[in-house]
């Protein structure tokens, strides 16, 4: 029986991942385990030890409107955005959250008119991130409700549009599509980092969401941040988090600060070196997309989105987008791509969850190397 083996070592210990030919490959979630290989090599530079008596208080910065934000995390967020050039942090308020998932909900709360007779409509252009509809409607709020695909939204009055750029699931750069008076925008910029897309402008939208989950790969730390122009909106988001979880884990915030600091430190050395975090990520993603496109070509059963290259302001290089997900389409007879791939023990997410049809699936590109290699190998051997 054939196996794919990948070993990673940090000097003192080695982890070996073995994926056998018929094992189940789960690429349904965007779990960013690809980055473990980088952080192993960083060793002490990204290690945090917390004595038992520290970080016990609820409070982090009582003088700040966001009283639970650790100042160190706030300053590392500003430093990293400045070095990368992907978002403007000047004259903006930072709200920290338990992942950008909590901040998304805080933003819905903060933007909804408090005294409206009807819930405000929440829209996003399909294919949209599959969690938006379920998170929006989960608690049957009287403040806001999911109203579907922004492309076909034509109602009068106020609305909230979610703009994900680069987009999950298809990886394209996006702008708002409704563009009508009364529109409130949430820009989800989880993937607006140089390993995924050439950074061509400094984002300066009213409300932008970021997360360590997709920037550094620390999804388990559950730290996200919002950059907010309007102080009243930032205050209402803070209020939501205060009532929801009385703040955000300090342990996690300090770990995130340490990780962001380590990333920034690598950005200050030459940007085209592999020990630059984003250059590591870009090379790895570029290699994976090349392998995937080769497998798709060999199989002849699928198609993938195409992207155009651009100059990245961070690296100065001309580079193509390398999305965190592959938006794979079954060409030909197969109507349900997800169940077809499940037949080959590959778990993906059905296109219908993203407001599209079942010919499409979303496949994570961020798993460990051995898993990814086994996936492309299996794909290249499929023929109709
Ligand atoms: N927004 C988008 C577009 C995402 O893809 C994800 C993660 N899959 C999230 C938000 C949630 O991120 P977090 O882990 O920070 O809650």
UniProtKB/TrEMBL annotation:
Domain of life from the UniProt record: Eukaryota
Keywords carried by this UniProt record: Membrane, Pyridoxal phosphate, Transmembrane, Transmembrane helix
One example of a Gene Ontology biological process annotation: amino acid metabolic process
Recorded GO MF terms: carbon-sulfur lyase activity; transaminase activity
Cofactor(s) this protein requires: pyridoxal 5'-phosphate
Alliinase C-terminal domain segment(s): 25-382
InterPro entries listed in its UniProt record: Alliinase_C, Alliinase_N_sf, Ethylene_sulfur-biosynth, PyrdxlP-dep_Trfase, PyrdxlP-dep_Trfase_major, PyrdxlP-dep_Trfase_small
CDD domains referenced in this protein's UniProt entry, alphabetically: AAT_like
The UniProt record lists the keyword Transmembrane helix: yes
Record family assignment: Belongs to the alliinase family.
PANTHER family to which the protein is assigned, alphabetical: BIFUNCTIONAL ASPARTATE AMINOTRANSFERASE AND GLUTAMATE/ASPARTATE-PREPHENATE AMINOTRANSFERASE-RELATED (PTHR43795), TRYPTOPHAN AMINOTRANSFERASE-RELATED PROTEIN 2 (PTHR43795:SF22)
Protein name in the entry: Alliinase C-terminal domain-containing protein
Source organism of this protein record: Kingdonia uniflora
Taxon lineage: Eukaryota, Viridiplantae, Streptophyta, Embryophyta, Tracheophyta
